[in-house]
Each structure stands twice: as C-alpha cells, then as structure tokens.
Amino acid sequence: MTQQLRVGTRRSPLARTQTNEVVQRLKVIFPQLDIVILGFTSIGDQTKGPLPTSTPGIFTSTLDAALINGDIDFAIHSLKDLPTARPEELTIAAIPKRKSAFDVLVTVSGQKIDDLPQGATVNTSSLRRTAQLLATRSDLKIEPLRGNVDSRVKKIIRGELQAIVLAEAGLSRLEISSVYQQRIPMDFMLPAPAQGALAVECRRSDPNIVHILESIDCPSTRATTTAERTFLASTQGGCAIPIGAYAEYINDEIHLSAEVLSVDGSKRIIVSGVGLDATELGYQLAQKAYQMGAKKILNRA
C-alpha cells in the first residue's frame, strides 16, 4: 500500500538537493512511499543584509512551526543550522552519513590561503570563518557575502569577487567543479559543529514516521556530531560566537577537537580529547576550554 508523506525544505537549490538525497535514500528502503516535497521560505532567506547573530533558528524555525502545526510530516535541515535546544514536540529521527566537513577556499584559479596576496579580500558572512582567517592572516580584508551557494561561486567565476570560503559538502552536493576549490586544513580552520551533516526531524508523536526515518540514521555520524554539538551547547555558543568543532572515530573511540575564538581572531582557545561517550566528551572539552580562558571570550561576545 502506498503511503504519502510530506517533507518540508527551504527553497534554495542546495536545500532541495539535500532533500532529494534523503528522499532517494528512503525510497530505496521503502519503495512504497510517495513523498511530496513542500518548499518554505525561512526568516533567514527573507532577511536582507547581515544576518542577526542573536537569533537562533533563523533558517529552521519556519520548518519547526510547520512540523508542530501538522503542515508537514518531516523536515530536512543542515544540522549545523539547527539550534541545540529543540522544541519538545520534535525529534531528530535520523542523521544520515555525513559528507565532507571541510571548508574550502574558492577562487578563480583554485589558490591556497597562503597564496593569497597581502591584503586580499575574502568574502564570508560566517563569524567563525572570519575569526579563523584573521587568526592566521590578519592582513586579509574580510567582507560579508549573502546569497545561494551557486550564485556566490558564479561571482568568483565572473571575477566580481577575489575569494570566498564555503563548505565543501555544499559544493559537492551541487556538483560544482573542484577546479575553483582548495580544501582548508583543519589545523587552520575547524568546521562549524556538524558541518556536512543533515538532520531529518519529525514529531515525537508519530512513531510510524520515526520508524521510517530511523532507517537512514548513521550511528557514527550521530555520535560524532553529538560530541561537536554538545561542545557548542555546553559553551552556550551559537552564531554570535566563533566556535569550531570536529569529531571522528579512530579505533572505536571518538576524537574531538574544538576551539573558541574572539571575533577578531586575536584570541584562540583550542582543546582536544578522546572518549567513548559523545555527550560526556563534548561537555568535558567545553569545561576544559573554560579553564583555559574561553569564558572571558564568551563573556565579551
């Protein structure tokens, strides 16, 4: 018997691509599903100019409301955009296998950051990326940049911009040529917590839908992103604080590296650790970062 489900997504090309990726995974396991994709415009999509850094869920709250109101059955988010504090009615039923967590520098010739000329302009609206760039290359001029991923890359190709920093996963999903990309090492730029991962969210009160969505959950991706997001939550950080974190499994243990930076990149607290419990590891490293001076950075921000 055919079962119809409604999935909500933002309208951007990347969000649509991510949603199609999840839908195809679900249909492989449940071919009888008829999944209708409904597009929504988030508050962040409607905002012109710089995004308000003090507003959590700026890209996700519209879909949250649609779920809670019963307008859709599940929603697809970029996990890095999802606030760590979630509505009680909702649950992240699946975190599929993560794509690359790296950031990349995008230039017309595929330059490395070290190859950029003195005083070069790099466009990014991410406070984290801004702080990380300035921490190593204080000579760089950082300018804000809004718009869809594909439109940003086109500005590079047309020569309108000198360099931009984007998530490698988004470029990969949109099949944008790697000719323009140079992966940034993680010792230079730790990614945003959960970068490259997707969240598939639904109502707790729908056990049948939870069961369907759980079929595409990746336990290792869930564990590593939980460690990263726990660090973020435990430092009470968010979009207003430059925080990077990345975890991976090595020999059945979770290895987590994380950092807290001042907005201008002049102060940088870096911590790392190994553990078996993702939540405990994220919390312990947050406490370690506090002891090393992160609290002063967070208080100033």
Task: Tell me the major beta sheet.
Answer: 5 strands, mixed
| Contiguous uncertain segments of 5+ residues | none
Shape: globular
The secondary structure category is alpha/beta
Q: How are the strands ordered across the major sheet? A: 2-1-3-10-4
Number of helices: 9
Helices and strands, in order, run as EHEHHEEEEHEHEHEEHHEEEH
| Overall pLDDT level | 92
How much helicity do the residues have?
A: 25-40%
Radius of gyration over alpha carbons?
A: 19 Å
Distance between the termini: 54 Å
How many strand units? Answer: 13
The proportion of strand residues reads 15-25%
Structure notes:
- The chain has helices spanning 13-29, 43-46, 61-68, 127-136, 149-157, 168-173, 207-214, 219-234, 278-300; strands at residues 3-10, 33-40, 74-78, 90-94, 103-106, 121-123, 141-143, 164-167, 181-183, 198-203, 243-250, 253-261, 268-275.
- The chain has nine helices and 13 strands.
- By secondary structure, it is an alpha/beta fold.
- Strands 2-1-3-10-4 form a five-stranded mixed beta sheet, with helices on both faces. Strands 8-5-9 form a three-stranded antiparallel beta sheet. A three-stranded antiparallel beta sheet has the order 11-12-13.
- The mean pLDDT is 92.
Summed up, what is this model?
This protein is an alpha/beta fold. The chain contains nine helices and 13 strands. A hairpin with a 2-residue loop joins strand 11 and strand 12.
